[in-house]
Amino acid sequence: MAGEQKTLLTASPVMQRVEFLIPGKPIAKGRARHARRGKIVTTFTPPETERYENLVKMAARQGMGMREPFGGPIRLILNIDLPIPGGWSMKRQTMAAGALIGATKKPDVSNVLKAVEDGMNGVVYADDSQIVDLWVSKRYSRAPGVRVEAVELNLQCA
What does CATH list as the number for 14-153? Predict the structure, then answer.
Protein backbone atom coordinates (compact mmCIF):
# COMPACT_ATOMS: atom_id res chain seq x y z
CA MET A 1 0.00 0.00 0.00
CA ALA A 2 2.93 2.32 0.45
CA GLY A 3 3.12 4.56 -2.58
CA GLU A 4 -0.38 3.52 -3.79
CA GLN A 5 -2.85 6.32 -4.09
CA LYS A 6 -6.46 5.45 -3.33
CA THR A 7 -9.22 7.31 -5.11
CA LEU A 8 -12.79 7.58 -3.96
CA LEU A 9 -14.14 6.80 -7.40
CA THR A 10 -12.16 4.34 -9.48
CA ALA A 11 -14.55 4.02 -12.40
CA SER A 12 -17.37 6.05 -13.85
CA PRO A 13 -20.62 5.23 -12.03
CA VAL A 14 -22.55 5.57 -15.31
CA MET A 15 -22.50 2.94 -18.05
CA GLN A 16 -25.34 4.32 -20.20
CA ARG A 17 -28.40 6.53 -19.82
CA VAL A 18 -31.62 7.58 -21.49
CA GLU A 19 -33.86 10.63 -21.07
CA PHE A 20 -37.39 11.11 -22.35
CA LEU A 21 -40.60 13.01 -21.69
CA ILE A 22 -44.04 11.52 -21.10
CA PRO A 23 -46.31 14.35 -22.24
CA GLY A 24 -49.61 15.34 -20.65
CA LYS A 25 -51.18 15.01 -17.23
CA PRO A 26 -49.41 12.37 -15.09
CA ILE A 27 -51.71 9.45 -14.22
CA ALA A 28 -51.49 7.39 -11.04
CA LYS A 29 -51.52 3.60 -11.29
CA GLY A 30 -55.05 2.45 -10.52
CA ARG A 31 -55.82 -0.56 -8.36
CA ALA A 32 -56.53 -3.81 -10.15
CA ARG A 33 -60.25 -4.37 -10.73
CA HIS A 34 -62.15 -7.65 -10.42
CA ALA A 35 -65.12 -8.86 -12.40
CA ARG A 36 -67.21 -11.97 -11.85
CA ARG A 37 -68.44 -13.92 -14.86
CA GLY A 38 -70.45 -16.79 -13.46
CA LYS A 39 -68.16 -18.69 -11.13
CA ILE A 40 -64.98 -17.18 -12.59
CA VAL A 41 -63.42 -14.01 -11.19
CA THR A 42 -61.08 -12.16 -13.55
CA THR A 43 -58.66 -9.39 -12.66
CA PHE A 44 -57.96 -6.50 -15.03
CA THR A 45 -56.09 -3.20 -15.10
CA PRO A 46 -58.29 -0.07 -15.25
CA PRO A 47 -58.41 1.31 -18.84
CA GLU A 48 -56.97 4.74 -17.86
CA THR A 49 -53.94 3.05 -16.24
CA GLU A 50 -53.46 0.77 -19.24
CA ARG A 51 -53.54 3.75 -21.67
CA TYR A 52 -51.02 5.69 -19.56
CA GLU A 53 -48.63 2.72 -19.26
CA ASN A 54 -48.81 2.34 -23.07
CA LEU A 55 -47.97 6.07 -23.45
CA VAL A 56 -44.98 5.55 -21.13
CA LYS A 57 -43.88 2.53 -23.18
CA MET A 58 -44.08 4.53 -26.45
CA ALA A 59 -42.08 7.46 -25.01
CA ALA A 60 -39.50 5.04 -23.57
CA ARG A 61 -39.13 3.20 -26.91
CA GLN A 62 -38.57 6.49 -28.69
CA GLY A 63 -35.95 7.48 -26.10
CA MET A 64 -34.16 4.13 -26.26
CA GLY A 65 -34.04 4.04 -30.06
CA MET A 66 -32.55 0.74 -31.20
CA ARG A 67 -30.89 -0.08 -27.87
CA GLU A 68 -31.70 -3.20 -25.89
CA PRO A 69 -33.05 -2.84 -22.32
CA PHE A 70 -30.36 -2.07 -19.75
CA GLY A 71 -29.16 -5.15 -17.89
CA GLY A 72 -27.56 -3.70 -14.77
CA PRO A 73 -28.61 -1.73 -11.69
CA ILE A 74 -30.62 1.42 -12.50
CA ARG A 75 -30.84 4.92 -11.05
CA LEU A 76 -34.25 6.34 -11.93
CA ILE A 77 -34.89 10.09 -11.82
CA LEU A 78 -38.46 11.36 -12.25
CA ASN A 79 -39.66 14.96 -12.39
CA ILE A 80 -43.45 14.86 -12.18
CA ASP A 81 -44.96 18.11 -13.49
CA LEU A 82 -48.65 18.45 -12.60
CA PRO A 83 -50.98 20.90 -14.36
CA ILE A 84 -51.70 24.07 -12.40
CA PRO A 85 -55.38 24.14 -11.39
CA GLY A 86 -57.25 26.53 -13.70
CA GLY A 87 -59.55 27.67 -10.90
CA TRP A 88 -56.71 29.30 -8.99
CA SER A 89 -56.17 33.06 -9.12
CA MET A 90 -53.49 34.36 -11.52
CA LYS A 91 -51.32 35.24 -8.52
CA ARG A 92 -51.59 31.69 -7.15
CA GLN A 93 -50.97 30.18 -10.63
CA THR A 94 -47.83 32.32 -11.00
CA MET A 95 -46.63 31.22 -7.57
CA ALA A 96 -47.23 27.56 -8.51
CA ALA A 97 -45.34 27.97 -11.79
CA GLY A 98 -42.44 29.48 -9.82
CA ALA A 99 -42.33 26.41 -7.53
CA LEU A 100 -43.51 28.47 -4.55
CA ILE A 101 -46.47 26.16 -3.88
CA GLY A 102 -45.90 22.50 -3.09
CA ALA A 103 -47.92 20.02 -5.17
CA THR A 104 -49.45 18.30 -2.14
CA LYS A 105 -52.61 17.15 -3.95
CA LYS A 106 -53.25 13.89 -5.80
CA PRO A 107 -51.91 12.03 -7.65
CA ASP A 108 -49.52 10.51 -5.13
CA VAL A 109 -45.87 10.36 -6.14
CA SER A 110 -45.71 6.62 -5.41
CA ASN A 111 -48.67 5.79 -7.66
CA VAL A 112 -47.36 7.84 -10.62
CA LEU A 113 -43.95 6.23 -10.06
CA LYS A 114 -45.46 2.73 -10.21
CA ALA A 115 -47.26 3.47 -13.50
CA VAL A 116 -44.03 4.81 -15.04
CA GLU A 117 -41.94 1.88 -13.70
CA ASP A 118 -44.39 -0.67 -15.11
CA GLY A 119 -44.55 1.11 -18.48
CA MET A 120 -40.75 1.00 -18.76
CA ASN A 121 -40.51 -2.77 -18.05
CA GLY A 122 -39.03 -4.61 -21.03
CA VAL A 123 -38.11 -1.35 -22.79
CA VAL A 124 -35.61 0.55 -20.62
CA TYR A 125 -34.81 -2.35 -18.29
CA ALA A 126 -35.78 -6.00 -18.09
CA ASP A 127 -37.63 -5.56 -14.79
CA ASP A 128 -38.21 -2.73 -12.32
CA SER A 129 -36.45 -4.80 -9.64
CA GLN A 130 -33.23 -3.45 -11.23
CA ILE A 131 -33.93 0.01 -9.77
CA VAL A 132 -31.51 0.54 -6.89
CA ASP A 133 -31.52 4.33 -6.67
CA LEU A 134 -34.54 6.61 -7.00
CA TRP A 135 -34.94 10.39 -7.10
CA VAL A 136 -38.46 11.80 -7.50
CA SER A 137 -39.91 15.31 -7.42
CA LYS A 138 -43.49 16.50 -7.92
CA ARG A 139 -44.20 20.12 -8.87
CA TYR A 140 -46.79 22.25 -10.60
CA SER A 141 -45.98 23.31 -14.15
CA ARG A 142 -47.54 25.10 -17.09
CA ALA A 143 -46.34 22.15 -19.22
CA PRO A 144 -47.53 18.96 -17.45
CA GLY A 145 -45.73 15.68 -18.01
CA VAL A 146 -43.11 13.41 -16.51
CA ARG A 147 -39.44 13.87 -17.33
CA VAL A 148 -37.59 10.58 -16.94
CA GLU A 149 -33.89 9.83 -16.76
CA ALA A 150 -32.78 6.22 -16.38
CA VAL A 151 -29.09 5.59 -15.75
CA GLU A 152 -27.48 2.16 -15.86
CA LEU A 153 -24.90 2.21 -13.09
CA ASN A 154 -21.45 0.66 -13.33
CA LEU A 155 -22.23 -1.80 -10.50
CA GLN A 156 -22.37 -5.55 -10.38
CA CYS A 157 -25.74 -7.27 -10.21
CA ALA A 158 -26.56 -9.30 -7.12
Answer: 3.30.1330.70
How far apart (Å, rounded) are the C-alpha atoms in residues 61 and 139?
A: 25
Please tell me which residue, 154 or 88, carries the higher pLDDT value: 88
Give rounded-to-5 percent helix, strand, coil for the chain: 25, 35, 40
Q: What is the pLDDT of residues 94-113, one digit of tens each?
A: 999 999 999 999 999 999 99
Q: How far apart are CA 55 and CA 128, in angstroms?
A: 17
Task: Measure the CA–CA gap between 99 and 50, rounded to whole angstroms.
Answer: 30
3-state secondary structure of 112: helix
Domain boundaries, the chain: 14-153
DSSP code of residue 79: E
